[in-house]
Amino acid sequence: MSITSPITITLILYAALAGAYLLVVPAAVYAYLNSRWYVASSFERGFMYFLMFFFLPGMIVLAPFLNFRPKPRQIEN
After folding, report:
1. Residues 58 and 66: beta-carbon distance below 8 Å
2. Residues 73, 50: contact at Cβ < 8 Å?
């Protein structure tokens, strides 16, 4: 089976698309959500919910490894 056979090209393409759908794009969405969550407009928040729904399988795969809890407040005396 050479690298130029149609089956090999198809398998490589499916693996690349699956990796992008399950790992790459959800990581970018997590970074976007982390930076814009508290300052987003209503339209942008709806877009965020759409991204979460559309990439939900990848979000579930990455969720155990990420922690986006709010930072503790600094209380001045």
Report:
1. no
2. no
Give the model confidence (pLDDT) of 59-75 as tens digits. 999 888 887 777 788 88
Enter the pTM of the model. 0.76
* Residue 61 neighbours by CB under 8 Å, 6+ apart: 22, 23, 26
Q: For residue 26, is pLDDT > 70?
A: yes
For CA atoms 45, 49, 52, 54, give the dihedral sign: negative
Question: Are the C-beta atoms of 36 and 44 separated by less than 8 Å?
Answer: yes
Residue listed under structure tokens 């339209």: 43
Instruction: Region of 53 please: left (phi>0), alpha (psi -120 to 50) or beta.
Output: alpha
pLDDT, mean of residues 32-41: 89
